[in-house]
Design brief:
alpha/beta, Rossmann fold, eight-stranded mixed sheet, globular
Length: 306
């Protein structure tokens, strides 16, 4: 089990700020950050991941983009190797503030292409809502991947229970767990996650990687952010991106953020590319990493030459 803590002293904040793999937010939360590609590139891709997983969901996309594209990715607070979200901060608004701070400090110059998967896309919408000046000044392109502007019905309590079962099987131990509860048998857990998150041709290793990521998420994130996802409603925020090169991407087998939600975003961004992958579920960055990387690279090219 990886232990992460909130940064509380000026000395701790200074030490973490000196590390390229850690970033301290304005309220003292240490975030895991992973950078790749040339530091002086004129365009930086910033990748925001989905609920309960972490930055490694983008591994295949980053590999396909290659070493010539600068990429910043990170773990949201309460996820992966980032610190737990302090009480009252497991909110999409706070994730948007984290992203704004990260861009300002870690990508101080040049244009940014934002790509957000699920909760990551919602975070980007909240960024536009809360920090429109930053978006207008710095963001040159946008990819919204398997996400929604609101009115979700897919993130139901049974989905959260399935994720908690994944956490249990992966071996995470917390004070909130009832030690008498029997974990879901691995074969049922894997089958449930495959059906909930993936399309028709999911690989076992990809499903197991998702389970491993789920085990890293702090329990408060599963509960707190799930409520935030259900209350998320930010269609109007897309207007800030209206003039930018953009793309809306979804799998036609997505059970959490279905195609209809992607169509609503595409209508709000009439010049955006609209891509529907047949047979693909919610995990587009995993199931179609090469194709998604090609799409993001196209946005980088447009921004570079725009």
């Amino acid at each position: 089990m990886t232990t992460v803590t909130t940064v509380t002293t000026a000395r701790e904040r200074a030490a973490i700020r000196a590390s390229p793999r850690r970033f301290v937010t304005g309220d003292g939360v240490g975030l895991r950050v992973v950078e790749s590609g040339p530091a002086q590139a004129p365009v930086t891709v910033v990748l925001a991941h989905c609920w309960t997983l972490d930055h490694t969901v983008w591994d295949g996309v980053v590999d396909a983009l290659g070493p010539g594209v600068r990429v910043q990715r990170y773990d949201h607070r309460g996820h992966g190797r980032s610190a737990a979200a302090p009480a009252g901060t497991a909110t999409i608004d706070r994730l948007a503030d984290d992203l704004a701070e990260l861009i300002t400090e870690r990508v101080p110059t040049g244009n940014v292409v934002l790509a957000g998967h699920s909760l990551g896309g919602m975070t980007i919408m909240a960024l536009a809502e809360r920090h429109p000046e930053l978006v207008r000044a710095r963001v040159g392109g946008l990819a919204l991947v398997a996400t929604s502007t609101g009115r979700l019905v897919g993130f139901r309590p049974r989905t959260a229970k399935l994720f908690l079962a994944a956490e249990n099987w992966a071996g995470l131990r917390t004070a909130r767990r009832d030690p008498r509860r029997r974990p879901l048998p691995p074969v049922l857990l894997r089958a449930g996650l495959r059906r909930t998150l993936f399309g028709t041709s999911a690989r076992r290793e990809d499903v197991d990687k998702v389970i491993t990521q789920l085990a890293m998420a702090h329990p408060a994130s599963m509960a707190g952010f799930r409520g935030q996802i259900l209350r998320h409603s930010r269609l109007a925020a897309l207007d800030v991106f209206r003039e930018l090169p953009s793309a809306v991407v979804v799998g036609d087998a997505d059970r959490l953020t279905p195609v209809g939600h992607a169509r609503a975003m595409a209508r709000a961004l009439p010049d955006a590319g609209f891509v529907v992958f047949p047979g693909v579920g919610h995990m587009v960055p995993v199931e179609r990493a090469d194709e998604l990387a090609e799409l993001i690279a196209g946005l980088v090219g447009e921004v570079s030459h725009g």
